[in-house]
Queue: 3 jobs
Job 1
Amino acid sequence: MSELDKTAVGNLKLLNNLNDNLKECLLIIDGNKLEKSADENYDKIINLRELEYPIYFTFNQLLNSIRYSNLYKIEGYSTKDLIRLMDNAIDSIVDMLVNCEDDPNCDNFTNIIDNIDEKFIILKDRYQTCSMCKIIETFNDYLDSICETFSKSNHYLYCNNYVNLEKEEFDEEFDDAIYGEVNGEVNEETGEVDPNLIYDDNNKED
């Protein structure tokens, strides 16, 4: 898991609970990272220009990771979960923009969100259609159950577990499993158990 994906997921979770009044959000911006201040007396007012980069980074990082990486989950979130989080975050940002119309950077920020939304809709549509990505994710959802079923399958089959057997024990059990046990006297000379192959005393003298 890359540090960039980790930062992007953290930002996205915060954006899901974004207050529609930017002045009350108590956000702390550190480069591409968003945090919420725990100090009630925090009086730093964030403007839209400061928010541009971390929000642009967050969505494009996750959109690219989902689209181009082979990761099944990012920070524990499946593609379905991330799509839901991004959808909610975009709604929260749009609600916030309604109260920021007097911000001089509102138009530029709106264009950024519109661009992000267009990319998001394409990703969402692709995911909701029958795509290889969705098939792989569905398979991974049930992978643990499938593996567990396979591991227990020998319980329902007439098989023995030879993994921990010594070679001689394995050979013996393998022969029994394939040929079955052969009843008969053992020829002391040849070691054979097939009664048809036991030599009598006359043959031995000859």
Job 2
Amino acid sequence: MGKKSSTYACTECFYQSGKWLGKCPDCNGWNTFSSDTVDETKDQLIFKINDITTKSATRIQSGIKEWDRVMGGGLVAGEFVIITGDPGIGKSTLLLQIANKISENHKTIYFSSEESLEQVKLRALRLKCNNESLFFSDQADIDTIIKLAEKHKPELIIIDSVQNCYMQSSDFSQASQSQLKEIAFKLMRLAKDKSITVISSGHITKEGVMAGPKTLEHIVDAVFYLQAEDRFQTRILRAVKNRFGTIDELGFFQMGESGLEEIANINKYFMQDLNPNPGSALVGFIEGTRPILVELQALVLASKYAMPQKVISGIDQTQVVLIAAILEKHLQIKLSLHDIFIKISGGLKIKGSSSDLAIALALLSSYFQKPLPEKSLALGEINLAGQIKPINYVNMYANEAEKFGIVNLLISSNQKIETHGKATKFKSIHDLLMLFE
């Protein structure tokens, strides 16, 4: 006969013990323990692949498309998410708006550890977040938050912010990194064990990374940064980790009088101030499922220093230096004796070799002080031999550009494209000079 043993669990907080206790050490409840006999010969801790039961991930959608897209189609039940960003960037505003929308169909509790309930109410009324099905609490003790969540069984809880929470039962000092890690672990177990989605805001350091131990990022399922764009009152929601979605998607919001409003077509903002000045080139890049069109600005000046300056913002500096070296090698233009400044409009960061041609054209345009043809988009890769190569997704870029009257594509001679506009094709960087004759 198999060996059997009994375990005891608190019926109030599910604290487990190997023996019966009169008082629960976790919730302090009296006579709350009941026994459960377990056959130790049956190992329930390891399973064969076919014995593991699965269910489709239930997505919690807010109806705010920019948020749902970045989340990977919506939040997942039992997911633990952290939203971080600079102070005053709008984290609390965004989370309150998300809580208000989701509470229309899913039970939601908003825990404010930074503001009083009166302050939260004033902000909620200003943002018109007055859904009667949204619940609020100003509790900051993480043990109390967990007990309330287990009692009321919400589908979503929002904690604003995790750094302002504390644990009276912890052996670590309040606000220490060790206690923060312990708090995060408890929230993670709450999310997984009770299938409650947990979203928390987090502070950011002066270096621009999430405050707290680095292991905090490994505990949570997803980390998102809310960032400000430098020209407009625009906020960019960017994923740096997402176990249930891609990290390539960007969400765009505009700060208005009634909070953050989603921007369905961000290219409209980037296109409105576009001017054909020397050193300016329009380039495209893919973020998730949509093409983004931005202006690449270059400034080339004869250097007055023994070591010419290279100031690059929004794009990989190595890529710019490489393109400048290729131009100098094959066109005999001494860019190494010039200061080079490169900036991506809109405060965005782009990556990938499809911007090689735009970098080369912007540098040449600034060097010769002659603008590129109006309403043109540069798309192409440049190899070390100076040849211009085709890129992927060119038709996606062309269709998006056509919406804004951008009908002239500057591309490789080998690029296959379906477009009703004009295409100026180049075989090598030598052909680029014809634009500046």
Job 3
Amino acid sequence: MATPSSRWLWRIVVVLILAAGIGGFVALNKLKPQPAVHAPVEQLPLVQAEAVEFREGALRVSGNGLVKARADVVLAAEVSGRVVFVSHALAAGGAFASGAVLLRLDHEPLRAALAQAEAERRSARAALQLAEQLLARTQELIEKGFQSRQALDERTAARDQAAAALARAEALVSQRRLDLERTVLRAPFDGKVLSARVDRGETVQPGKELARVFADGALEIAVSLTDREMALIEDPWRKRAGDRRNGARASVRVEHGGGVYRWPASIDRVESAVDSATRTFSVIVRVDDPAARGSTASGNAAAAPPLLVGMYAAVDIEGIDPGPQARVPRRALRDGSVLWLLDAAGKLSVRPVRVLQEANNQVVVSAQGLPAPARVVVSDLKVVTDGMRVREIGAAAGRPPS
């Protein structure tokens, strides 16, 4: 049986054990290493940005099109006949001067027809003279009372019929003479032959196409431009107002044999209607001396070519100077007229701009109000607010781009 003193001893032992455990637990908590405490990293949207290219000076309006002749006509026979002469120039690529004889038809049948018409005219003239003499004699007899008024009417009608017959004969002579002249086919202007479809000995009929020719004194290229591009050209409609001066200066570029060649040109006119499908204007650019060899822009062919009909050409038109400009990638333009600019502190600003020109993958905008230098965001964001902070791809986390 335990004594009171032993019971107290056990109680003291239990208390000491509990105190030792509590003390050890507290000591362990005090001595364990504490984790490092860091401020949370701000998660900023990532963007891709590119530098804005600033520039000044006149803009260049560019387009392209096929080289065409200013005048392109079909030569056809106006009378029937056998071909007895074909000029050496009347072949594809042949050159000729205005008024040159290109083709002759056998004129003997038409010469005979003209002689017959002239004989009929002489007969009609003699018949008219006789009718006039008979009319005059009848008038004398009526005055003397030997003839009735009916005889006068008959002589007058006969005179009128003879006059009509003479008029028909003279018209036939004119027609036969014209037909005879039409047996000779002459060049309507200085030019070249696109195609020829006639040989000596062939019998042709009126209206049959014999050749296609074009005037080579000037060639044209039709270029389609938007209203925004038209606004960059100084008064493209000037010549429609009666001004005899050339329009805005231009140049024509053609690739040939691995090289690029240029010819000076100018705006000749603007077609009077806007294309209903594309809403573009057709500007006609004229090259006044296409036979001259093109000046070398790049490459070095053995012989520079002349400008030829059917070539595909690029056209550069001298534009106006709209003031300071900025060139940015097309994908940087938002909603047609907004840029997202990124400053050095990593803040994004939404900036409306005036678009001057769009070409290929580049857009030229007015630089008025834009800071220089500047970077423009070219990637997309789901939500954008003016002044929001972003992080450029490639910049260190938590640090704005430099």
